[in-house]
Specification:
Largest sheet of chain B: 5 strands, mixed
Order of helices and strands of chain A: EHEHEHEHEHEEEEHEHHEE
CATH superfamily of the largest domain in chain A: Response regulator
Number of strands of chain A: 12
CATH topology of the largest domain in chain B: Heat Shock Protein 90
Shape of chain B: rod-shaped
Number of helices of chain A: 8
Largest sheet of chain A: 5 strands, parallel
Structural class of chain B: alpha+beta
Number of domains of chain A: 2
Radius of gyration of chain A: 19 Å
CATH class of the largest domain in chain A: Alpha Beta
Distance between the termini of chain A: 29 Å
Helix content of chain A: 25-40%
Oligomer: heterodimer
Number of strands of chain B: 11
Strand order of the largest sheet of chain A: 2-1-3-4-5
Chain lengths: 226, 455
């Protein structure tokens, strides 16, 4: 993937670039908002990672101008400390996701993947299929190998998020945000609890578990297991 | 130390002197008017006196002729006490008897123009034989009385002036004395002694009330300072523990680790420990940020009902996994003006606290109700509760009950919850659920967009 990284702190930027390149991405970098805006206008990127606090042209303003120019590159905001309205402000400026520093590298990569895989606007899916699992967004019914799996609403949302990001690492934080709309770290591991219930129901017919737990990070739904 | 210069500069002195001056001017004016009125009255009386005297002499003449008149006049000349003077002038214009100096007044009753200010009062009468008798009063008595009254008023004026000056000095000295007490205390506080308080007189006058108010202000500042100091100490203490653990772990690794696997495990531990430290920092910063926020521009209408359902839903499974029961009684359509993320964190913190601090088998209840203009949100449990004396303290940063000190958590959850409640115009209160603890938050109710303007 081609990624634009805009960050004013040089060591952070260097770490960001090397980590993304190691993960196989092509990275363009900018140390300030003006350069970032220029690069974003000149070339197309799959995802832009933008620090919120930038000297000169602020991260929020950069994205606002970008959107005004019609550039639709998905934007992931980085911020030092979750301020009270940072997330809402970021989304209202045209950002797509939001990550508080410090973050685990896996978290950053997972979010970049999720943003790049986001379906284009206008395309409405009603049924998602992964291997022998079928999820109907309209009737909210899930079947595995044709057998109905009876899921609670949150379990359904968990599965939906995993299926939309099939083959990719999905972090606990991503799930907390998308399923429960919790933008902080609760002490209790509610994702784990609900995930184990989802897995028990999904695998009740004795089939192999398509969900892999990645210790310390999150989960991957594999397509090649039926 | 108070100096004379301070005294002279004192506003009290200036006000009192000004007042004294005004008082003296009015005393002077009253005196002047009194002297005028008294003089006028006495002069009228003297005029009546000479008129009566002249009439009496005419009566003497009519009754006993010239001889009786002259006898009467001679008798009056002999009286040393009188200031009345007489002259009898014959028809030919010669002075027959009496004071020749009065001769000019017989022609012109007003007397010679040159000495008009010393004009004596006169009354002249023509007698049957063509002679003229003239009675004059030189106003000595009137002038004497005028002098006495004037002197009395001048004395009063001087006394008032002295009294005023004395009062001014005393009053301003007293004012300075009272103010000095306040100034001394203020200076001690400036110098760093926050325990100083202004001495009260108990008189409930304006100075005493000011002292009481200032003392209350000092109490508040002192309380905040103590709190701040406590928080700094707590932060230092609570960060020291994980930092020491981190250091010990790293040191042990550098001595003992031999394989790449050893190092990986050690680094993972170090990252976990660092995350814990960062969590404490984030929580502290967030509390500070929330407490410093007054602007609520990011607030939107939030459905507390929906939020409560989400929280109940998220925690029902973890609760039952740990042997506890989560029950919810949620009224629909409870809206508040709020920051959704902070409110979610507030109630998650409360539910996690309840689950963590109750023994297995307990029931934790989520309650949401709308009553009047308020949304009543509460999390209650039937666990061990919090003693009344501890309820205020557990809201403090890092404060933990003795029995839960060894458990997980950093002692910031309830502080954060209280700060969030306050930011939303609500108040977090702890009460006895009999048994157990009930933590409730009351919010002002808000209508969702588009529903408040109908009609």
């Amino acid at each position: 993937m081609k990624i634009l990284a805009v960050e004013d702190d040089a060591p952070t930027l260097a770490l960001l670039v090397s980590s993304l390149e190691e993960a196989g991405h092509v990275v363009e970098q900018a140390g300030d908002g003006q350069t970032g805006l220029r690069l974003a206008r000149e070339t197309a990127h799959d995802v832009a990672v933008v620090d919120r606090m930038l000297p000169g042209l602020d991260g929020l303003e950069l994205v606002r101008q970008l959107r005004a120019l019609g550039v639709q590159t998905p934007v992931l905001f980085l911020t030092t400390m979750g301020g009270i309205s940072d997330r809402v402000d970021g989304l209202e400026a045209g950002g797509d996701d939001y990550l508080v520093k410090p973050f685990a590298l896996a978290e950053l990569l997972a979010r970049i993947n999720a943003l790049a895989r986001r379906p284009p606007l206008g395309r409405v899916e009603t049924i998602i299929r992964v291997a022998n699992v079928e999820l109907d967004l309209v009737t909210r019914r899930v079947t595995r190998a044709g057998h109905v799996v009876d899921l609670q609403p949150r379990e359904f949302s968990l599965l939906e998020f995993l299926m939309r990001n099939v083959g990719q690492l999905v972090t606990r934080r991503q799930l907390l945000e998308s399923v429960w709309d919790f933008h902080f770290d609760p002490r209790t591991n509610i994702v784990e609890t609900h995930m184990s219930r989802l897995r028990a129901k999904l695998n009740s017919d004795g089939g192999p578990d398509p969900i892999e737990t990645v210790r310390g990070s999150g989960y991957i739904l594999h397509a090649d297991i039926s | 130390m108070r100096t004379y210069r301070d005294l002279l500069r004192s506003a009290g002195l200036r006000f009192t002197l000004l007042y004294t001056l005004a008082f003296m001017v009015s005393v002077g004016a009253i005196g002047w008017l009194t002297v005028l009125a008294v003089t006028d009255a006495l002069e009228r009386q003297a005029q009546r006196g000479v008129d009566n005297e002249a009439r009496a002499l005419v009566d003497e003449f009519n009754a006993g002729g010239r001889q009786d008149l002259e006898a009467a006049l001679t008798g009056r000349f002999a009286n040393p006490l009188t200031h009345t003077r007489y002259v009898l002038i014959g028809a030919d214009g010669h002075v027959l008897l009496g004071d020749a100096a009065l001769l000019p007044y017989t022609r012109d009753p007003a007397g010679p123009a040159a000495s008009r200010s010393d004009v004596p009062l006169t009354a002249a009468r023509k007698l049957g034989d063509g002679s003229i008798v003239l009675v004059a009063d030189d106003l000595t008595d009137v002038r004497d009385v005028e002098a006495v009254v004037t002197r009395a008023f001048l004395t009063a004026l001087a006394a008032a002036g002295l009294l005023g000056l004395g009062t001014a000095l005393l009053l301003s000295s007293a004012l300075l004395h009272r103010l000095d007490a306040i100034t001394r205390t203020a200076e001690a506080v400036v110098a760093g002694d926050l325990t100083q308080r202004i001495a009260r007189t108990g008189s409930q006058d304006e100075f005493d009330r000011l002292a009481a108010t200032l003392n209350r202000m000092l109490d508040r500042i002192g309380g905040l300072m103590v709190n701040l100091r406590q928080v700094s100490t707590d932060i230092a203490h609570d960060l020291r523990t994980p930092l020491s653990r981190l250091r010990q772990g790293l040191e042990a690794t550098s001595h003992r680790a031999t394989t790449a696997g050893d190092y990986r495990v050690a680094v993972e531990h170090a990252v976990e420990e660092t995350d814990r430290i960062l969590d404490i920092f984030s929580a502290l910063l967030r509390i500070a940020q929330i407490e410093a926020t007054t602007l609520r521009k990011s607030f939107r209408p939030v459905s507390l009902s929906e939020l409560f359902h989400t929280v109940a839903d998220a925690y029902a499974a973890p609760a039952s996994d740990s042997g506890r029961t989560l029950v919810a009684r949620i009224v629909e359509d409870a809206w508040v003006q709020a920051d959704h993320d902070l409110l979610a964190q507030l109630f998650v913190n409360l539910v996690e606290n309840a689950l963590q601090h109750t023994p297995p088998g307990s029931t934790v209840g989520l309650e949401l109700d709308v009553r009047g203009g308020s949304v009543l949100a509460a999390v209650r449990d039937d666990g061990l509760g919090v003693p009344a004396s501890e309820r205020e303290k557990v809201l403090r940063r890092f404060y933990r009950l003795e029995r839960s000190r060894s458990g997980p958590g950093n002692g910031l959850g309830l502080s954060l919850a209280a700060a969030v409640a306050e930011l939303h115009g609500g108040r977090l209160t702890l009460s006895d659920a009999q048994p157990g603890l009930r933590v409730s938050v009351t919010f002002p109710v808000a209508l969702p967009i588009g529903e408040g303007v109908a009609g």
